[in-house]
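tool_call: predict_structure(chain=1)
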Amino acid sequence: MKEIYLAGGCFWGVQKFIDQFDGVVETEVGYANGPDGAKANPSYEDVCRSSGHAETVRIVFDETRISLAELLKMYFMVIDPLSVNRQGHDTGIQYRTGIYYTDDSMLDEIHKVYDAEEAKAGQKLAVELEPLKNFFSAEEYHQKYLDKNPGGYCHIPSEYFSISK
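tool_result:
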């Protein structure tokens, strides 16, 4: 199993979107890459008050069933990679985009997708690409939120939640 952390705006939709793909074993929403000295284990309210953490999805996947490159291509389908601290109607530093890794051996595969997206955009992406510094699980009510609350707001169009079918 491999693990990658993706920040793509509101974590509810990113989690629901990623959950649909065969080979995704587990997802968890949380708060990642807050600044050094930021509160450990921040609450949603802390994050909304600019703690510096990004709403992020931890993804555990079976690389024999889905590659990291495939996951990243799907991720880029549902974000605006040029937007700074904003996805859809959500604005603030917690809605920034980022690819956070824990294994340096993933960098070549990450860069192949990232660099291709940057070339396609014709400019530098606003998507952070850096090692995971920290990750704190979000409150239980945020986990699988859109499954529990199907009418909840999301910047990702609802038809994207069933593209794997």
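agent: The longest helix spans residues 107-121. Proceeding to next step.
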